[in-house]
Amino acid sequence: MKQTIKSILIGLSAFAMLSTAPAINAYTINQPKVVVQSSKRDLHINFSKDGKKFAYTQLEDKGFANVTSQIILNENGIEKILTDGYGDIKPSFSPNGKKVAFFRGVVGGYGYLYTIGTDGKNLEEIIPTRITNSSWSPDGKEIAFTAEGVEEKPYILTEKDIKDLKEYYKTDNITYKVGDTIIIKEFYSAVAVVNLETKEHKFLTINNGNSESPEFTDNGKILYIYNKNKGTSNGKELWMMDRDGNNKKPLVTVENFSTKKINPDGSATYHLKTGEIDSVSADGNRIAYVLNTRERIVQYAPKKNNKLLYDTNEIKDEYKNGIYVMDLKTGTANLVIDEGNLWFPELKNNKVYFSRCDDERTEHDIYSVDLE
């Protein structure tokens, strides 16, 4: 396998701000340092339990429908390509550091969860799944991942449904009639665990919203991102549950609302606020996560002599993207950095590692910030 050595590059400036979490203690934040820099997109960093090696995804976009990716293993500054060119992303180490789990894409966001030895041998297909991160249980017996579930719901056909079917198939010869009951399949994402010995899996969250991105804590709890609003990213919150799926509870909630106010002059003021948790990492009793929020206040006023057109006044449009660290024992959360586009935090060795870019279309490099 190809081997290279990468240097630790100079740090870039940044600043820290306090979060609006219930309890706040500010970190003393040093300048972010570049850990991995290349002409490609460097993403999804994950450390071994002992913190001596890490793996990450290196992705290159060569044009329409031509994206290649590799998983790179870094040990003591020496890098080697662990997997190459099959849409391989989101590596995670086994507890003993001897294996790496990763997602291998096939088409349309679907593929397989695999494991491979850190020596590049013993590639093993574990289970078919959608795009997912993965996380090993502390005992190494299971891997948590994002699965796709199917909920079957009865639906009674209306007169409009029959009309739509006739128009769609361009025929009046439809066997269904008004009042017939059909079964509709509704897909949703769920957190599941797969037994590495038997390859059997079980769902820990079922059809009560979308659940994804599970992450085991050191004591065997599972962090995950939950969204009751199916079909939209708005409303993604950070939740935690026991390893068996019991005792689900929110850790970080987000504000999502939309209001409309009619003003005396006939104009309307819309106030919208959305928030979502993007990704999470756990290390000991602390977790790191990305929180994205957007708040907009827009005023619409009818144009004179034309009720079909409006003058728009953008009063406020504020977007925030930040990485936070929370102490699970105290509930204290702190904003670590909110400069640039921030992705995929990894909490290790009293540092937060993350992917950052100035523009989503440009290269992503991996940085680190010392917490204290």
Task: Note the topology.
Blueprint: E1 3-5, E2 33-36, E3 41-47, E4 53-61, E5 67-75, E6 78-84, E7 88-93, E8 99-107, E9 110-117, E10 124-130, E11 134-136, E12 142-156, H1 159-169, E13 181-195, E14 201-203, E15 210-216, E16 222-227, E17 237-241, E18 249-252, E19 257-262, E20 268-283, E21 286-303, E22 306-327, E23 333-337, E24 341-348, E25 351-357, E26 365-370
Antiparallel strand pairs: 1-6, 2-26, 3-4, 4-5, 5-6, 7-8, 8-9, 9-10, 11-12, 12-13, 13-14, 15-16, 16-17, 17-18, 19-20, 20-21, 21-22, 22-23, 24-25, 25-26
Short description:
With 372 residues, this protein is mostly beta strands. The protein has one helix at 159-169; strands at residues 3-5, 33-36, 41-47, 53-61, 67-75, 78-84, 88-93, 99-107, 110-117, 124-130, 134-136, 142-156, 181-195, 201-203, 210-216, 222-227, 237-241, 249-252, 257-262, 268-283, 286-303, 306-327, 333-337, 341-348, 351-357, 365-370.
Kindly describe this structure.
The protein starts with a strand and ends with a strand. The protein has a single domain (32-370), classed as Tricorn protease N-terminal domain (Neuraminidase, 6 Propeller). The strands form six sheets. It has a five-stranded antiparallel beta sheet, with no helix packed on it. The protein is built from one helix and 26 strands. The chain has 372 residues and is an all-beta fold. The protein has one helix spanning 159-169, and strands at 3-5, 33-36, 41-47, 53-61, 67-75, 78-84, 88-93, 99-107, 110-117, 124-130, 134-136, 142-156, 181-195, 201-203, 210-216, 222-227, 237-241, 249-252, 257-262, 268-283, 286-303, 306-327, 333-337, 341-348, 351-357, 365-370.
